[in-house]
Amino acid sequence: MTDVRSAAVNVDGVHGTPTDAVLSGLFRSELGGHEQVVFCQDPASGLKAVIALHSTALGPALGGTRFHAYEGEDFPEAAAAQDALDLARGMSYKNALAGLDHGGGKAVIIGDPEKTKSEELLLAYGRFVASLGGRYVTACDVGTYVRDMDVVARECRWTTGRSPEHGGAGDSSVLTAFGVFQGMRAAARHRWGAATLRGRTVGVAGVGKVGHHLVEHLLADGAEVVVTDVREEAVERVRAAHPQVTAVADADALVRLPGLDVYAPCALGGALNDATVPELTAAVVCGAANNQLAHPGVEKDLADRGVLYAPDYVVNAGGVIQVADELHGFDFARAKAKAERIFDTTLEILRRADTEGVPAAVAADRVAEQRISAGTRLPGAVG
């Protein structure tokens, strides 16, 4: 059920209407087929946001809130809507493969979080989420943090990623990084025969909330680590803690780095595209970023070059596993044990891809779509 009225009224209120491409992505099932999209606006606080619900077949939609400026876009509202649609669809697939009784949703708040984020804005956003009556459960994402979710939760009980002091699990990036590391171990087993990164060179693009935790796992496992980030202070923080880590100027340099074994995109999406894939030196791609494939067909380009791609929504599910567990009284050991199963899920997907003669992303999509279509709970599922 698509909230067409909300879309029409609120988009007009933000000086325009969505592009044809955005509307096409909303209604056409072959592009995702979303249940509901709500455009939110609160002039008093300056809030402009998009909440996209892709599917509730397995349960309430669960996914984070991204706070991003979309600078340089001619129509930032349309860019935000498209991002929300893409991310919500990815959450449906991620939650299905993680064994959660949740569908997929995502929200995007439009603006620079360093300049426009305020308590008033977050409270207004919480009221919009609450108005959905539990169809959407929110959490942290790029640009939002535990302290922000504590504020949102004052207006909305369907909020996870809160601080332990406010009944939450705290920072979900810890288990996100742990899950990505398990997926990377599985990819290493599939490619090189051993579930370890010892002696391998791993390039991490983006060492923010998740990336810096991933670096720690890799170093403990004996990997050589090279990093980059658009924020110099993020690189400096990692190198101050771990002087053995080296850095390169940017993601383009990392992609082309000689001797790279694994490339780990851990920033924003679209890292694997028509420009980067031909330059990629790594034999494995496994990272935390959502929507790493810039467009359909990139997964085949990777496979044609012999690059093993561990699908992002399979390996980065540790965070959503954590926040789903929070809904039932958070237990870190229980959540970590579920996140550890990402190793088995990733290995299953990679083996199925070989058996069916398709890229791993296609194999993962098929498994997720079958589970969403069936609409049934999985053994051991939570949510």
UniProtKB/TrEMBL annotation:
Gene Ontology process terms (BP): branched-chain amino acid catabolic process
GO function terms (MF aspect): nucleotide binding; valine dehydrogenase (NAD+) activity
Binding residues annotated for NAD(+), in chain numbering: G206, V207, G208, K209, V210, G211
Glutamate/phenylalanine/leucine/valine/L-tryptophan dehydrogenase C-terminal domain segment(s): 170-380
Pathway: Amino-acid degradation; L-valine degradation
Subunit note: Homodimer.
Superkingdom, natural source: Bacteria
Family: Belongs to the Glu/Leu/Phe/Val dehydrogenases family.
Transmembrane domains' residue ranges: none
Reactions this protein catalyses: L-valine + NAD(+) + H2O = 3-methyl-2-oxobutanoate + NH4(+) + NADH + H(+)
The name this protein goes by in its record: Valine dehydrogenase
PROSITE patterns named in the record: GLFV_DEHYDROGENASE
Active site residues per record: K106 (proton donor/acceptor)
Keywords tagged on the record: Branched-chain amino acid catabolism, Cytoplasm, NAD, Nucleotide-binding, Oxidoreductase
The keyword Ubl conjugation appears for this protein: no
Known EC number: 1.4.1.23
Enzyme class, spelled out: oxidoreductase
Subcellular location: Cytoplasm
